[in-house]
Design brief:
Helix content of chain C: over 70%
Bound molecules: adenosine-5'-triphosphate, magnesium ion
Number of strands of chain B: 2
Distance between the termini of chain B: 18 Å
Number of domains of chain B: 1
Radius of gyration of chain C: 19 Å
Strand content of chain B: under 5%
Chains: A alpha/beta, B mainly alpha, C mainly alpha
Largest sheet of chain B: 2 strands, antiparallel
Largest sheet of chain C: 2 strands, antiparallel
Number of strands of chain C: 2
Oligomer: heterotrimer
Shape of chain B: globular
CATH architecture of chain B: Orthogonal Bundle
Structural class of chain C: mainly alpha
Strand order of the largest sheet of chain C: 1-2
Radius of gyration of chain B: 19 Å
CATH class of chain B: Mainly Alpha
Strand order of the largest sheet of chain B: 1-2
Number of helices of chain C: 12
Largest interface: B-C, 43 and 47 residues
Order of helices and strands of chain B: HHHHHHEEHHHHHHHH
Structural class of chain B: mainly alpha
């Protein structure tokens, strides 16, 4: 699918024995996995498999119970999220988490936070360096909006956009941090077919900008089309991993998704995965 | 700073400059200026509270305590150590900021109700200290004979001089806060308010920002406290109790806590209400405050500035090229 | 000097019982709504002042005055929920905090309007001099306070274990959505929680007034200290609140006796801050469970 062979690239993210527990619920169990740099890695799994919990761990919103996470060779487990973001990791949220009362442009400008510096005194006194930075910030934010195709909506309040554009704006905001690794949590949720196609194309352009993408998604068409590799989570544990075609034909995966009754039937193919009852 | 804010700032400055002549024409001269001096002092406090509560979304019921720390620092340093008032003033700000930092680091990890209770408890403790440390503060009987301010060797006499000094300071503080808001820092504060977890994931050190804006609000409150001290020349712990923290909150709420203009408007309005009209029925005072606060919180939570029918709005509105989002 | 410590124990247990009752009031509302009601202390103050009014003003005998004060404050609690809290169903946490604070100021203002700024006294429930124990004096009224606390705790645990309403309230506390789905009238339960917690606060107020007098502005401090007990005991936990309230009362009494009476009020608040800063899950809570709560 791409020129990059997973084995050749150095891993950008390494999970080792990762585990998370909520009271009695085991959300993640002993996950050991490596994501090579420069690819589109998808993570799929039924509802409640622990995909979002995994993202929360990697991005620092949740401290893992056990195991280690290495991102760009640094052990980041236990770091505050803003430090991880500064190191070059960004994400979007399954439940849209925009700054609803700020403009589209301001949302993206907030994303540039880790790449700018002015503090309370410099901004309050409007020191010259701060003005230059503010101008630069605004220009970069605009160019990112153009890149994702929201350039015309810069002045709109983020909360007033339709869901599809909010999802794209979340990606733009995340891109503004200049991530080396971008986590997308169900970006196609609530998008129509055309929007989903454009999203797929956007994700591929992002990968083209030297950014590794980890995609959590229930839309199997999208996942199968653009992923270089797929990891299947099942009850918090890796069930299988491999190329899209390998995953598509993996009987264990089909059974996990569709239950025993379907596993034997030949109908359990690509298309039925696509229509799985997830969402 | 967007054009709208610049225009309002200009209008405000002109109105403030002309106000003393205006009241002279009406008749009752000095008294209204006196109330305006207090309103200006409270404005300095409430600009900080507005940043903290309206923009960063962190409640504080300890602002009267920081106001008091500034006031007593100025009072004690000038009376007992014969410091120059202008030197005592920044000292009070630094002290209040330091205390705010010490309290804020653990307190601002708390959210909502817990933060409110923690700041409330802290405020009451500080009030008890003002009462008990009689050797320094004079305790309940107060601290007297506090020197006034002088500028360039000339003592500041009369309300007019005080009026221009205090409101000049308000305007400077206002410009500072407006600059702050329309910048990286202001966006970060609003982001923390609106979606804290996303703010953190976008690289904003939320804990540090919360503490910093808390420290700034404490320093501004202390500055207001210092002016208060030298203006009234007498201190007594009653001016720094819980009810004052609630009054500050009410002032900010009445105008609209998500706007600095709201903070100024509400402060001036409520200072007049408190000083002018409530004196008539002193026994109702607390009752009236409670009713206004409850009514505002229930029916007009975004304050007077959120009323759409303010006539000057049309004039102040900028052409639709602005990219600043709507304030919550 | 020898018996002084016993004297402090008596004093501490008495005021501690009041803090425990206030804490229980917080817990009842918190459990059902996750709201911390900043007007909790005002219920105590109103209970005391209304009892004075019913006894001195209306010449009711003590049991009737007690009941009338508790009922009246209970009704205020009901009104607070029905006309204020319910109005603000969709408000942010910040607004809710401001709203309950505003209501507390309103109650305080009404009391100031009705009773003025003077403290009021109430005759002890039973006449008679103090009982002597090893040189320390125990006021009969203190026994009433302790007895009242015991009765409230026993009745409440019966209520939550046995009665259908009590069980339904606990279900709301556990999971309001699930409770709604199995047919628990959540709104009624919220209303009931305000009624109960206001009534318990009022009872505490009536009982303590003969010992410490009552005036319009006592609510805030009582509320804060009671909240300290609620946090130390683990928010939402009744037995924790009881133990923590008594401990807080003892700490305060010993501080007043041996360190400084001026800072007596500060000690409970310092403990509250320490608890909030370093152990918000309470003395007996596990930090694991606390992570799942939102502070
Ligand atoms: N904060 C939490 N407290 C308790 N349990 C949680 C919490 N977050 C997640 N869980 C549980 O952990 C498990 C994994 O949830 P998670 O949200 O990670 O699943 P997911 O794979 O993202 O599902 P979906 O496809 O529905 O988004 C679920 O059983 C969920 O109930
Ligand atoms: Mg998920």
């Amino acid at each position: 699918m791409t020129a990059i062979t997973p084995q050749a690239a150095e891993p950008i993210l390494e999970l080792d024995g990762l585990g998370v527990q909520f009271g009695g619920v085991v959300a993640l169990r002993d996950i050991t996995y490596q994501v090579p740099g420069g690819i589109i890695q998808s993570i799929i799994g039924p509802n409640g498999a622990g995909k979002t919990t995994l993202f929360n761990c990697i991005s620092g919103l949740l401290a893992p119970g056990t195991g280690s996470i290495r991102f760009r060779r640094q052990r980041i487990a236990g770091w505050a999220p803003h430090r991880i973001a500064a190191l070059g990791l960004s994400r979007t949220f399954q439940q849209v988490a925009l700054f609803a009362h700020m403009s589209v442009l301001e949302n993206v400008m907030v994303g540039r936070h880790p790449r700018s510096r002015s503090g309370f005194l410099a901004t309050g006194l409007r020191l010259p360096g701060m003005r230059r930075e503010e101008r630069e910030l605004r220009e970069r934010a605009r160019s990112i909006l153009d890149f994702v195709g929201l350039g015309d909506l810069a002045a709109a309040a983020a909360g007033t956009l339709p869901l599809g554009q909010q999802k794209i704006l979340e990606i733009a905001r995340a891109l503004a941090t200049e991530p080396r690794l971008l986590l997308l949590d169900e970006p196609a949720g609530g998008l129509n077919t055309r929007e989903t196609e454009q999203l797929g194309e956007l994700i591929q352009r992002i990968r083209g900008r030297d950014t590794t993408v980890i995609l959590v998604e229930h839309d199997m068409n999208l996942v199968m089309d653009i992923s270089d590799r797929i990891l299947v989570l099942y009850f918090g544990h890796p069930l299988a991993s491999g190329t899209p075609s390998a995953i598509k034909d993996n009987p264990e995966v089909i059974q996990a998704y569709l239950g025993d009754d379907w596993a034997e039937s030949s109908a359990a193919s690509y298309t039925s995965l696509d229509n799985h009852p997830g969402r | 700073m967007p054009v709208t804010d610049r225009r309002i700032l200009l209008v405000l400055a002109l109105v403030l400059a002309a106000f003393p002549w205006g009241v002279r024409a009406v008749g009752a001269v000095s008294h209204y200026l006196d109330v305006m001096v207090f309103a200006g002092i409270f404005c300095i406090v409430n600009l900080g509270l507005s940043l903290l509560m309206g923009f960063a979304g962190q409640i504080s019921l300890a602002q009267a305590a920081f106001f008091g720390i500034g006031a007593y620092s100025s009072g004690i340093l000038t009376v007992q150590f014969a410091w120059n008032p202008w030197a005592a003033m920044p000292m009070g700000m630094v002290l209040a900021g330091l205390v705010a930092w010490l309290v804020g680091v653990p307190a601002l990890r708390l959210k909502g109700h817990y933060l409110a209770m923690a700041t409330l408890g802290f405020g009451v403790i500080v009030h008890i200290v003002f009462n008990e440390e009689v050797r320094w503060t004079g305790g309940p009987s107060g601290l007297v004979d506090i020197p006034g301010l002088s500028v360039a060797g000339t003592p500041l006499r009369g309300e007019i001089a005080w009026y221009y000094l205090v409101w000049g300071t308000v305007l400077v503080a206002l410009v500072f806060c407006l600059n702050l808001l329309h910048s990286r820092v202001g966006r970060a504060l609003r982001a923390i308010h609106q979606e804290e977890k996303a703010a953190e994931a976008m690289g904003i050190p939320t804990a540090r920002y919360k503490v910093q804006v808390f420290v700034l609000s404490a320093a501004l409150a202390a500055l207001g406290g210092s002016f208060y001290t030298h203006y009234v020349a007498f201190l007594n712990p009653g001016s720094f109790d819980l009810m004052w923290s609630i009054r500050f909150m009410l002032m900010v709420m009445v105008g609209g806590m998500q706007s600095l203009w709201g903070a100024v408007l509400g402060t001036v309005l409520m200072t007049f209400v408190g000083n002018e009209w409530l004196q008539v029925f002193a026994d109702y005072e607390v009752l009236v405050y409670g009713s206004i606060l409850l009514g505002m919180a229930l029916f007009l939570p975004d304050g007077l500035v959120s009323l759409k029918s303010i006539p000057v709005r049309g004039w102040l509105r900028t052409p639709r090229s602005s990219t600043e989002g709507t304030q919550r | 000097m020898d018996s002084a410590w016993l004297q402090y124990v008596f004093a501490g247990l008495t005021t501690g019982s009041i803090y425990a009752l206030v804490a229980i009031g917080y817990n009842i509302i918190y459990n059902v709504t996750e709201i911390i009601n900043f007007a909790q202390g005002e219920f105590v103050m109103l209970g005391g002042l209304l009892a004075v009014f019913f006894m001195e003003g209306c010449r009711l005998p003590l049991p009737l005055a007690f009941a009338a004060a508790v009922l009246a404050v209970g009704a205020i609690g009901l009104a607070m929920e029905r006309f204020v809290i319910r109005q603000a169903r969709n408000a942010s946490v910040l607004s809710l905090i401001i709203i309950t604070i505003a209501f507390s100021i309103l109650l305080k203002g009404s009391a100031m309007f009705g009773w003025g700024k003077d403290p009021y006294r109430l005759e002890p429930f039973t006449a008679g001099g103090p009982l002597l124990f090893g040189g320390a004096a125990l006021q009969p009224q203190a026994l009433w306070v302790l007895g009242l606390t015991a009765v409230v705790v026993v009745l409440l645990s019966l209520f939550f274990r046995r009665s259908i309403y009590g069980k339904a309230m606990l279900a709301c506390a556990d999971n309001p959505n699930a409770a709604r789905m199995v047919g628990v009238p959540v709104r009624t339960m919220v209303l009931l929680s305000f009624l109960l917690s206001a009534a318990i606060g009022a009872a505490a107020g009536v009982a303590i007034t003969p010992i410490s007098l009552m005036e319009y502005d006592r609510g805030a401090l009582l509320g804060l200290k009671g909240f300290g007990a609620a946090v130390l005991g683990g928010l939402g936990q009744f037995s924790g609140a009881l133990v923590a309230g008594l401990l807080l009362g003892l700490a305060e009494a010993f501080c007043a006796g041996y360190l400084s009476s001026g800072y007596k009020d500060a000690i409970a608040l310092v403990l509250l801050l320490l608890a909030l800063f370093f152990k918000p899950e309470g003395l007996f809570g596990s930090s694991e469970a606390a992570k799942l709560k939102r502070f």
